[in-house]
Structures are given as structure tokens and as C-alpha cells.
Amino acid sequence: MAHKTPGAPPTEGASTPEAEDTAPDAATPYDGDDFFLGGEAAVPPGEYGPPIVSVLPPLSERSGEFRELERRVQARVSPVFPIEHRRRLPMAFLWKRYRRYAMRNRSARVDDFGRDPVYAARIEALLDLLYSRWFRVETRGIENVPDTGRALLVGNHSGMLPYDGVMVMYAMHSDHPARRDVRPLVEDFVFHFPYVGTFINRIGGVRACQSNAERLLGRDEVIVVFPEGLKGVGKLWRQRYQLQRFGRGGFVKLALRARAPIVPVAIIGAEEAHPILAKFTWPAAPTGLPYLPLTPTFPLLGPLGLLPLPAKWFIHFGEPIDLPGTYGPDAADDRILVNKLADTVRSRIQDMVDQARTQRRSIVFG
After folding, report:
1. Among 39, 91, 142, 288, whose Cα sits 20 to 30 Å from the Cα of 364?
2. How far apart are the first and last CA of the chain?
């Protein structure tokens, strides 16, 4: 029987109860850090109080509640009345008459860009009043616009509101030998005016963008563009009839790719219809408009100040510029050439405007 000496270390292979309780695990030797792997997830009993016992019924018993919750959600999303009941409304004959009355000025079929032929026909008397009586428009060289096929009319822009595009459109419809329909491309800010954007859209105006123009020319239609854009309609009185920069030559690229001739157009009289004395940008920000103009009649007369003054108008159509006959479609990718051609067209229109102004004796009587 072996005897142990007090204080002597245990012999190799021997073990004691104290050593078994205090010795670390041989598989995970202690490396000096004050933690044990897996011990941090253990919660001492009573540390956070007694566990909370779930009071929910088993999942198998909750299926009915889920179905009821789904039914209530669907009831909120779905119409109040099922479709079969809504088709049998009381006094159906009154609803039918109301729908006919609401659609009395609208066509059952409009084109891809929102033109309503029924509405355009009804509004033709108003356009004729503006064209023949109010502005007393005279056209020259309108036969330069081809009778068939696509064409791109490029004109100077002025007048605060897009009366120039409407007058060019009506001039082609009434004075051209083929009575061709013209689609003016209108700036985005026009559609922010109450009723104006809807009116322009329903009589044939199209929101100005490259894709819309390509689609229209692809259908062999005639479109009119104003490359000055917002800078043109926002010119002050002291800048009247001074053509602004023609953007980045987008109309030249359009003509080259669509293989359409360019017809320059000079419009005289629109500057005097709405002479802008000053413009303010900060009050117009909440309305979404680029500026608020100050004219002799607006805002002094309120909404009546938006009526144009009865200036005498002249619209001159120049000889076509056949860019597709000189350059191929790949020329649209040459920025230097595009800018050069845009300046050439701009100079041509400026010369036409200057010449027409010298021939005019009076702003009101022409």
C-alpha cells in the first residue's frame, strides 16, 4: 500500500478527487484567456427570472385565425361591392346617360399621343378665330412643305405660351394645298399649366422628346420643332427676334437618322403677342413652372392677362434643306458636323426673320 507524503506532488498516473474537479480538459488546454468555449451561452439559473410560458394555442389550432385575418385583409383591398353587384347598380339608365354626357366632346378612339379627332374638330372654330380674326395670319412659301412624306419644320420660338406651334399647325391644315396635319413638339413646362397642356395634347400637340419625334417621322408625318426651347419663349422684350442657341443639334440628328428634309420657318408677331418685360424664378418654384412672367397685362389682369395681344402675324416657310441627300445616317454621330449644320439652319432662320421684320410696317396692322 503506497503512502503519500503531505505536500508532495502526486506521482505520474495517479489522480485525486480534487485534481479531477480542478484539472482542465486535456482536449482543450487552457491558454490563459478567461473564458471556456461554449460557456458564454450558458445562463445561470435564476439570472433573468422564471421562463415565460407561451399562451398561444398550437399551430394546428391557429389555422382558422389565419384564414379570418386573410379574409379581413382581402376585404380591405377588394372593392366594397363584388363586381357582379356593381354591374347591377340602381337606376342604371341614369348612369348610362351620365356617361354619355361626360363623353360628349370626346372620341371613343384617340391616337398614340392623345390627339382626339372629335375634340379637334369641335375646337376648329376657335382656332380659326385666332388665326383669321385675332392674329390675321399671312403665310408665304407654304408650298415648300412637301405634299406627301415626312418633313421636319424648324422655327423660331417666342410668345410665352405655345401659340406659334398652334398657328403653324392650323396654317398647314387650312392653307397648304394638301391640307396636311402637323404635330408640334411642345416643351414639358407647358403641361404644368392648368388646362393648357390638356388642350394642346388633345388638338395634336406632342411632348417634345427624341423618341416621339422618331415615331411620328417613321409614320411619314410632318412635325414642327423649336430648337430654342425654353430660352426662346422666355426671351425678354429687349431680346425679341434674336434667336438663341439651338441646343445640341438634336433636330439635325433627327433629320439625318429619319431621312427627313428640314423646312425653315420664320414666325413674326408672336413676340408682340406676349411681350415679357421681366421674369421671376423664385415664386414659380412651388408651381413647377420655370418662371413667372411680367407682361403689360399679366399679372395685372389676372387670368385675363394670359390672353394674347392682337398683333399681326406672318409665317414664312423657306426652301427645304435636304440634309439626307448630302449626308448619310452615320453623320448624326459626328458632333462637329451636327453643330455646324445646326448653326447653318439657325442662320437661315435668322435671316428670314430679319427680312420679314424689315417688310413689316406696323405691329398691329402689318
Report:
1. 142
2. 140
